[in-house]
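HUMAN:
Sorry, I am quite new to this. Are you able to go through these amino acid letters and fold codes? The numbers rather puzzle me.
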Amino acid sequence: MPVVDPILRHSCTFGRLGAPLCRVVAMSALALLYSYTAPASAQSCPALQPYYPAHSPATPEEWAAKLPALEALLESCLLSDEYFAVLGAAQLNTGQVPQSLESLERALLTNPQNGAAQIDYAETLFLSGQLFAAIQINDALLRRQDLPENLQPMLLARRRLWQQQTLQHELMLEVTTGVDDNLNGAPMHSDLTITYGGTPVLFSLSPDNRPVRGAFAGLQLGGAWQFQRADYRHELVATVRVRKAPGTQADQVQGDWQYTFMVPVRHNQWELGAGTSHMMFRGSPLYSIGGVRARYVWGASECKPSLEGGAKQLHYHAQGIMDGTETSVTAGIGCSFAPSRQGVRLDAGVLDNRAQDPARPGGDRTGWNVRLNWQWQVGPSEFGAQLGYTSLDDGRGYSPLLDNDAVRSVQSQYLNLRYRRKFDSGLSLLVKLTHQQQHSNLVPFQNRGAVYEVGLTTNF
């Protein structure tokens, strides 16, 4: 016997992707026309109409109020597909996506034709990142001969929105201004001691080789493209950054691109990537870096561990003797917490840098690094932080002129804090603070600097 009351009173219209999940509730309620009473073996399960929200569309708060009573019926309704369909809807609309996925799967195992469970199951799959599985189930619903006419426009609208996710592109323009404590990346100390003929000699650096503090203007243009299919995904990200510092010789131009090919393997994923980075400083090429990487990500839960291996070719245009090949192995874990809209990622790895020229000062280098990224979105505001630490040791003495050919050791650390506030106009206010410091047993490689930056960004 189909359930018809109070379900027939519900209706909704889907809006933009990512709209509040309460709109799914109304759609699910209409779909409960497909639900049937529990089989005879589940006669202890009570009638479930009192456990549906009274309003249309229902709010997450209404579903949250119904959820404890629904959970209390679990042992009595183990064989009722209608029960698990309603429980899954309540969990879905209160942000419990993994639990909703399990409940809706149980409903469909009991009754594969339960339309309510199918509709919510497709939505849950989409929210879990399984886009093509969600589209497949949505298409199967559209092919049903018993589909009510008032459901078809909703399902078609949802399909169009999901289909748009298979090909996405976005451009970003950022204009900033700020102050840099060390525009030219010079050493902290103005005096340098070298060893000449076994005798230490003190030199004073010229003003051009001392830290220069000044204002700058920045411009960044970036683009991201994503093409997705059921069994693979392509991503390409490219950016160009220009920094102009009037009255100084510290202008910079940097161009980067990164391509990633992703292949899902059950609940895991392979990521294969390649990219390059080029920097110009004071109007001349400074360095070029090209690299490849492979990462394997485990699981489909909130926290996903990963293991990555990579290789880079580093070329310094004015100092070819410093060229090298760097390999790395990195283990990490990334967590995304949907209810609090926070994300955090921690990576730690080892690296090995091999000199291409045997005469390179310091020879080969080995070391390790740690990186932490955090992001939190609160309404139109977004907070973020990045911390990093890298330690490198040379394989032999750097130069007989520096501390009697001591082996160089370098430790670098950085902190980046950022705040973004989005406005209805499409513009965003951006505030950034970056601090970096490099320690070394050799004075020329000790430096630090802080950058304070404010500007506007827009996406289109």
